[in-house]
Design a protein that fits this description.
Layout: E1 20-24, H1 29-40, E2 44-48, H2 52-64, E3 69-72, H3 79-93, E4 98-101, H4 116-144, E5 148-153, H5 167-186, E6 192-199, H6 215-225, H7 237-247, E7 258-261
Parallel strand pairs: 1-2, 1-4, 2-3, 4-5, 5-6, 6-7
Helix pairs in contact: 1-2, 1-7, 3-4, 4-5
Length: 268
């Protein structure tokens, strides 16, 4: 393809039809969005998570969008589990092209009230498991020799602190940012891009109360929106576009970056 051939069809840069993607944490708020976005764009999706019944539900939604879908009821909580998840993708579809690590954990408490074991739980779920899953997927992508896309989950809290007891979460997301940058450098010449998507508050079962018209929700929204130039909270579709960009050829020259889907929150 010549350097300007894509101009005849710029949307071809976002074409992921036939690619195989793993989504860990596929039953969570972001994981389900990621799975359905990739499925709707034509990728084969392998959904990993610890809740079999909920996996089946998300898989059915992906199948309804026309995707070939497989599930595996495992969390990326060990080297063995991560290797098994990757093996399942290869057995189902013959290869692996895209990894989305959407699994994670948060425990909110002031530092004097947060147990050291709880801090370590958050670090394990958000940092160690991201590292293990990227390692397992990267080994497969390197063996294929055709590049790949690794997408981790960061947060505005990887860059900014929070007064409400986020020492574990902020530390974990800063560490995810470090993994993203280091792997972006390590795998750059192998054409494996490594980036992270960093949301702020978006609509999900955990945040639904913030979108309500209660006095408490209005008070919290007012304080939060004072920092958001777009003047609103996030919606699931706000994550779909950035995710598709990071999963597709459109982001081939974009690696080691954290893409904030935050309405400008981190800019102000």
């Amino acid at each position: 393809m010549s350097n300007d051939a894509f101009l005849k069809n710029p949307l071809s840069l976002f074409d992921i039809k036939g690619k195989t993607a793993i989504v860990t944490g596929a039953t969570g708020a972001f994981g389900a969005i990621a799975a359905k976005t990739l499925a709707g764009a034509g990728a084969n999706v392998v959904l990993a998570g610890g809740k079999q019944d909920e996996l089946k539900k998300v898989a059915a939604e992906c199948t309804a969008l026309g995707a070939k879908t497989a599930t595996i009821a495992l969390r990326p909580s060990s080297e063995e589990n991560c290797e098994t998840i990757v093996k399942a993708a290869v057995e189902a579809f013959g290869r692996l092209d895209i990894l989305v690590v959407a699994s994670g954990l948060n425990k909110v408490a002031k530092i004097v009230d947060l147990k050291p074991s709880e801090f370590l739980d958050v670090m394990d779920a958000n940092v160690t498991q991201s590292w293990l899953m990227a390692r397992a997927a990267g080994k497969q992508m390197l063996s294929q020799g055709q590049g790949g896309k690794v997408i981790l989950t960061s947060s505005a809290r990887g860059l900014l602190g929070h007064p409400a007891g986020y020492t574990a979460y902020c530390a974990s997301k800063s560490a995810v940012d470090g993994i993203t940058k280091a792997l972006g450098c390590e795998w750059g010449e192998q054409n494996i891009t490594v980036n992270a998507l960093g949301p702020t508050v978006f609509r999900s079962p955990l945040t639904a109360w913030m979108y309500e018209d209660t006095e408490r929700a209005q008070f919290v929204r007012k304080g939060f929106l004072a920092r958001v130039p777009k003047g609103r909270l996030g919606e699931p579709e706000d994550l779909a576009g950035p995710l598709l960009f990071l999963a597709s050829k459109a982001s081939d020259f974009y690696t080691g970056h954290i893409l904030y889907a935050d309405g400008g929150y981190t800019a102000g």
